[in-house]
Design a protein that fits this description.
By secondary structure, the protein is mainly β. The protein is 0% helix and 52% strand.
């Protein structure tokens, strides 16, 4: 069992930066974690994912080169750094965990989500 709590969302102007945090508790060792996002009227999409060792990474093409996923296992926290934000990045961002790599489309454990708004 893994419990996840997200923070760090907010309002930022286009071209700006935010860093999202996902604090985990419970059985975290060996977990893979991903960040998903969902905007109104659009499908949920996987933005980035990271395995336990942080040697395996995934990025969606739409964010490659702008977003960075990382984790600090000593702090049980996964981060999503977001740079050069665009209006199309606005969405509710969720972190999710699963004991499997590659991270599946429907992981077992989810956070509550945090809103990211990007002004044009």
């Amino acid at each position: 069992q893994v419990q996840l709590v997200e923070s760090g969302g907010g309002l930022v102007q286009a071209g700006g930066s935010l860093r999202l945090s996902c604090a985990a508790s419970g059985r975290t060792r060996g977990s893979a974690v991903g960040w998903f996002r969902q905007a109104p009227g659009k499908e949920r999409e996987l933005v980035a994912a990271i395995n336990w060792s942080a040697w395996s990474l995934y990025y969606a093409n739409s964010v490659k080169g702008r977003f960075t996923i990382s984790r600090d296992n000593a702090k049980n926290t996964v981060y999503l750094g977001m740079n050069s934000l665009k209006p199309e990045d606005a969405a509710v961002y969720y972190c999710a965990a699963h004991y499997l790599w590659p991270l599946p489309q429907r992981p077992d454990y989810w956070g509550q989500g945090t809103q990211v708004t990007v002004s044009s």
